[in-house]
Amino acid sequence: MVASTTSAAELVRIAWMEIAMASFAATVYFTLTGWLVQGKKVKSAKHQQNCGLCDQEPTAHQQIAKALRQGKVKDAIALLQQLPDFVNACLPVNLAPRLLMAVAKSSKFDELVMEMRVFIGKIEARSLEAVVLEATKNKDVAAGHQLLAMSRILSLTKSTKALEAFAKLFSRDAACLRNLIEDSESPLPRPFAKQLVEACAALRDADLAVEVFEKVADSDAAMLRTIAEKAATAEAAGVCSKDAYVLSKDIRTLGKSGNLDDAVMAFENNKTITTNALMYNSIMDACIECGKPERAMEYFSMARGSGLADAVSYNTAMKALLSQRQVDAAKGLFAELSEKGLSPTLASYHGFLNYHVSAGDMMSAWQVVKDMQAAGATASAITCSILLKGKLSSGTDINKILALADTIEPMDEVLFQSLAEACIRTGQLHLLTKYQAKLSEKGKSCALTAPIYGSMIKAYGQARDVKQVHVLWADMISQNVQPTAITLGCMVEALVANKCINDAWKLVKEMRREEVTRPLVNTVIYSTILKGFANAKEMGKVMALYEEMMTDGIQPNNITYNTILNAFAQCAEMHRVPALLEDMKKADPPLEPDIVTYSTIVKGYCKSGSLDRALEVVNDMQSGGELVADEMMYNSLLDGCAKEGRPNDALKLLDDMKKAGVPPSNYTLSMLVKLMGRCRRLNQAFSIIEDICRQYGLKVNIQVYTCLMQACFNNRQPAKAVALHDQIINEGLVPDEMTYSALVKGCLQAGLIEKAILLTKCAHGLASPKANGMPPGINARCVDDLISAMGPGTSEAKALVAELAGCKVGSSTSKGKGKGKGASSMGGSTPPWRTDSSKGDAKPPWRQQML
């Protein structure tokens, strides 16, 4: 053993000496050949090269990466915009994920997201996918929430892996999962759906699971049900068997279609799989959808008695009770939630909130909000949307809701739509403008969709704010929001209503030039512009626009042709009618004139003094047996009779109206009275009124009586006219300014000055009989004529002027009719007849003497 050890040590010693000798020899050789010197030189050269690289300027990508590492996100965003290929290319995939995560983790998220809007359409799906996977790996839920919000604001595409990662990250957050489901198109990708089903099982949210299964592919449904069954048992997790999922969906579908009997049958015939909260909730929903809340309460009692009622069951039951106005009973169920160990959800509060808002009780609605906040429940967009549907009396009410909405980030389209509608409904358009600007400052103008822009444009058009109409349209285009046909229609209508018809036509031409927007221009939009030109009596432009429609292949409809015919009627161009009717017949498919078409033609002929042509049109129309004359058409014909002084034809038309079963109106009576008065048939005018009132139970209005008074004066029977004044007061009618002006003028023409004075005082509330309401006064010119007839310098005239000077007058019943130049003013201000503002009239001599 000793010998063996000694031998081994000797061998090591010899080997070591040989290695040392070989190393020495090698050193001598390399030194003599110069190899070591050359190696040093090479090393030195490489070192110098590396040092040279360190001295160079860092690249743009390096500068951006450095800025992100240092937390200078705004600088990084600015540098990214300076990249040479920024306009035409997406953000580099090595930088985009870093940028997204930096923004998500920043305390200035809202401000930075506004800056990020310049990258809309420039961030690839794989960049979002990478950063979401990183957040999921680190279980960074806070960053995940910001990334999800950013994906909505920047319209980022979510890949299947990104959706799956989001679902995994938010597996304990039902609200976020529901948002993911709503944002995703059907069918859901299988991995994403699988993750959602597992999350639903963990959350014990059966209703959310149903939403998942409603959007999955049929081919994936069986596999996902198997996963659901394995994830948890039906009793513990609320996840039903595969048959129960199908049955639940069927029951809800039947309820929405109003088929409650089949829904109940499906529930009752499957008792083995309906003993869980999901199934009871489904049949309760079906009952409420079909208007049977009492049936819903029966099923709730069954679920509660079996211990299967969950928070959703209670919410549904409270909804049923509130629909029956059983508020106290619903409050009792709300209190019972906590007793059963269940927590009220937002839906629990929203049920009461919606009830009070619908009832117009905003005080109680705000109390619900306070209770909700006191319980630690955070208001959502739905909360604010419900409040905005309530009865809002002022801008203060909207501001109160906006203060609540400011706590919701980000504001979604539904909430902004509700806000827009509320501002429009209450006339608080300045608030809408202000809040829109506020959204734009925060980088959330993406919440404005084409329908919202359309609603706002329509509202500002009705408010005559053309400038803001143009601003909204320009903003919509700058935000790359594609207008719809309805949005364009709102814009055109707003311009036409505000007399900007040429601007509307110019806009339509621009839309027609672009291939993308060409399909938006339809017949309705052209008809709107046609109507504008027709009302403006610009016949040349009406026909030019019509020719443009025909050239561009925009097929006119009946409304289009009726609009053009109305232009013919207003512009006395009735000779064009036959050619236009021929165009209607040649249309593909051919268009048949309707009752509006014939009424427009009849009105045009009557207006132009061609009553016989109008009567021929009516006879031709009725000969077909499909169309019969209505009141509007008969009134047009009677107006034509009045213009041409043809009382016999008018009486025949009245008989035709009665035979056709068309009841005359007050407008019909007023034209007949005018005609009979002009034709010296006053007694017949009284007889017509008496007969029609008795036969049809018609109550004559003040306009008919005014026409009858004028007819009395025209037929030299002023006593009858004055007697009519007392009669209408006794009947409870309220004369307007036109009525009293006609009476005073007629009395002066008949030389009845004392009667004229008395009626003038009655008109100003200074004499009896007095009518109800504010005295209407009379036309200033009538006062001038009366004072002149009395003698301007007389004491009686001066006294009358003094009396009238202190009167408060204003025709509340005439709604402005008959008021105009010289009409008495409201509120007791100086009457116009005491001023010198009568246009075109020289001052009467008595004014120079008395004023």
Q: Nutshell version of this structure?
A:
With 851 residues, the chain is an all-alpha fold. Helix content is 69%, strand content 0%.
Describe this structure in words.
It is built from 47 helices and no strands. With 851 residues, it is an all-alpha fold.
Q: Which SSEs are present, and which pair or pack?
A:
Elements: H1 2-33, H2 35-55, H3 60-69, H4 73-81, H5 96-105, H6 109-116, H7 125-137, H8 141-153, H9 160-169, H10 174-183, H11 190-203, H12 206-215, H13 218-231, H14 234-237, H15 242-256, H16 260-268, H17 277-289, H18 293-305, H19 311-323, H20 327-339, H21 346-358, H22 362-374, H23 381-388, H24 395-405, H25 413-426, H26 429-441, H27 450-462, H28 466-478, H29 485-497, H30 501-513, H31 523-535, H32 539-552, H33 558-570, H34 577-586, H35 595-607, H36 611-623, H37 631-644, H38 647-659, H39 666-678, H40 682-696, H41 702-714, H42 718-730, H43 737-749, H44 753-763, H45 780-790, H46 795-805, H47 845-850
Helix pairs in contact: 3-4, 5-7, 5-8, 7-8, 7-9, 9-11, 10-12, 11-12, 11-13, 15-16, 15-17, 16-17, 17-18, 17-19, 18-19, 19-20, 19-21, 21-22, 21-23, 23-24, 23-25, 24-25, 25-26, 25-27, 27-28, 27-29, 29-30, 29-31, 30-31, 31-32, 31-33, 33-34, 33-35, 35-36, 35-37, 37-38, 37-39, 39-40, 39-41, 41-42, ...
